[in-house]
Write a structure and sequence with these properties.
The chain has about 575 residues and is mainly α. The protein has 25 helices and 2 strands. About 60% of the residues lie in helices and about 0% in strands.
Length: about 575
């Protein structure tokens, strides 16, 4: 009844004078929720303590009655049971401060009632906690606001808490559903979202420009500044701190609901950022003459930095809000709150990563990989012919400068988490593409094999430098489960396999068994082995790309996708080889 009455009064405050006090009343929700949980914890602990004391008294009375008869049992109860435990059972544990003196009976009335001169304070309450109360933390422990997880679970599942929240239950009217803490919580969350999203109204404004004739021209949208992002970061930490009893006067179980508001903020921010993307796509990111970044790409990379800064703020917000202010004296409750906050903010981080990947990074590495593919395909322009062995290393002439330009002009302008992603994708694609092109080289003499082997070593060094400059902590051997790097190393051994030259009359089954017994065969793709076998064939047998009337670059593009995936291309290569 007390909880229902409090809930009705809260509802009246929210509706007072047409809701004029709703905002101010909603601001009291953190403190009111904390006080309510402390009160419910006090009741819960008091009932638990009283139940334990009553059970102990009943057990003592039963033992006394069986040992000394009815008179001894009554005597024991009179001297030790009623005087020290109380005749009201669970009332022995009602030692909570908010009850006041209204529950106490006058001592003079108690003396006149003939209860052996026992004062009211003795038979209605316990002045000092018993040993059993101390073992359960006592009532005083519940008033500190640091409830255990088990205690909070008991509080939130109790009928009293449901009544205080305004939920319908047994014995409550339907009008209680609109009363209690629930409307106050709803008003508080709405005000919280309003405070969080207020800075968004001034971000991503539409850019307008006109030419000399007054005709509107397309202009890239404006992006938030560092000051705008710092304001959002401060607002997020301020809202999260409302759940901290020391900072915002709230209660740590509010972390999840406030974090959900932060997720709403990030979703609105991402929706606005999506409209600020240049939409140039992979065709408009690089200049055709030198492969440098266009204005559209520079704009989108700045947007990438904005999203990266916001993501960093979200990752650091839980620790900066709940742990850093109290380090090194932070409590386990604050660590748990920070962990819950990190889990609750994961959807926001996923939303940011999804936006950056789909709208910026995917078109970027597709454009860069297209440039790399064109450069690698130049190895078929007579690079490995026997009469051109003095032209120098192919990788140093055609690929090294491209990878240096990618690192300096593109990766260096992206946040580390995104630059490492782009570098990893380019490295994976480059390895598969280079290996597929090398396996299609015909004719393949002894000097050509040696030169390709040297280029493979130079190629590995270039990619290692690209990955390091991209800020990735992983090496080539760790990317894509190590499969691209394993194939890169295995191809060096494959190039010098001469099983067909040793026995010209060998049967196909024997040749297949000989290949499968090689150590390197487990690390290379089937298409790589098939294409390599064409180097032993007579010139009258067309290469796979010739039979499909495609250039080498176009054919390799069917084997390796721009995102580095190769699974779909293997089935196509098998059908082409059989044909």
């Amino acid at each position: 009844q007390f909880c229902i009455s409090m809930g009705e009064r809260i509802n009246k405050l929210l509706k007072y004078n047409g809701g004029s006090m709703a905002a101010d009343t909603a601001a009291l929700y953190p403190a009111l929720r904390s006080a309510a949980i402390d009160m419910m914890g006090t009741i819960h602990d008091a009932m638990q303590a009283g139940s334990n004391v009553s059970n102990a008294a009943a057990a003592a009375a039963t033992a006394g009655g069986s040992g000394g008869g009815m008179d001894d049992g009554i005597g024991a109860s009179g001297s030790g049971g009623i005087s020290s435990v109380g005749i009201m059972g669970g009332s022995a544990g009602l030692d909570f401060g908010w009850a006041g003196e209204s529950l106490l009976v006058d001592a003079d009335d108690a003396n006149d009632s003939g209860l052996g001169g026992t004062g009211a304070d003795v038979w209605t309450r316990v002045d000092a906690p018993s040993s059993m109360e101390s073992s359960h933390g006592g009532v005083s422990g519940s008033t500190t606001g640091r409830q255990s997880s088990a205690a909070l679970a008991g509080i939130f599942s109790s009928s009293e808490w449901s009544a205080l929240q305004g939920s319908n239950g047994s014995g409550s009217s339907s009008s209680n559903a609109s009363a209690g803490l629930r409307p106050l919580e709803r008003a508080f969350l709405e005000a919280s979202v309003e405070r969080l999203c207020a800075p968004l109204r001034f971000m991503f404004p539409e850019a307008v420009a006109v030419d000399e004739d007054g005709t509107a021209i397309d202009v890239l949208p404006h992006l938030p500044s560092r000051y705008d992002l710092a304001k959002i970061d401060a607002g997020i930490r301020e809202e999260l701190s409302l759940a901290d009893p020391r900072e915002g006067g709230g209660e740590l179980t509010m972390v999840t609901m406030i974090s959900e508001n932060v997720v709403d903020l990030v979703e609105q921010f991402c929706a606005s950022a999506r409209g600020a993307v240049s939409d140039a796509g992979e065709a408009g990111y690089l200049r055709e003459d030198d492969g440098t970044a266009t204005e559209a790409l520079l704009h989108d990379m700045k947007l990438c930095s904005v999203m990266g800064t916001l993501a960093t703020s979200l990752r650091n917000a839980p620790e900066n809000t709940y742990i850093a202010p109290y380090r090194p004296a932070h409590s386990s409750q604050h660590e748990e709150a920070a962990t819950l906050c990190k889990i609750s903010l994961k959807p926001a981080l996923h939303e940011i990563d999804s936006l950056v990947r789909t709208t910026i990074l995917t078109p970027l590495f597709r454009a860069l990989n297209n440039r790399v593919s064109s450069a690698i395909a130049m190895m078929h322009q007579g690079t490995y012919l026997e009469e051109k062995m003095d032209d120098g290393a192919f990788v140093q002439h055609h690929l090294a400068q491209i990878y240096d330009d990618i690192a300096s002009s593109h990766l260096s302008k992206l946040p580390s988490e995104y630059s490492s992603m782009v570098a990893s994708t380019i490295a994976t694609y480059s390895i598969y593409t280079f290996v597929s092109n090398a396996s299609l080289v015909r004719p393949l003499g002894e000097n050509s094999r040696l030169k390709i082997t040297q280029d493979l070593a130079d190629f590995e060094l270039c990619l290692e430098q690209l990955v390091v400059k991209g800020g990735s902590t992983a090496t080539l051997s760790q990317m894509d489960s190590g499969r691209p790097y394993a194939e890169l190393r295995a191809v060096r051994s494959m190039l010098f396999w001469n099983g067909l030259d040793r026995d010209l009359e060998a049967q196909p089954a024997d040749i297949a068994k000989a290949i499968l017994r090689e150590v390197w065969v487990k690390d290379v793709r089937p298409s790589t082995v098939f294409h390599f076998l064409f180097s032993f064939a007579p010139s009258l047998l067309s290469s796979p790309h010739h039979s499909k009337r495609m250039t080498v670059e176009e054919y390799v593009a069917t084997l390796v996708k721009y995102d580095g995936s190769v699974d779909d291309g293997e089935a196509a290569a098998w059908m082409t080889t059989l044909a």
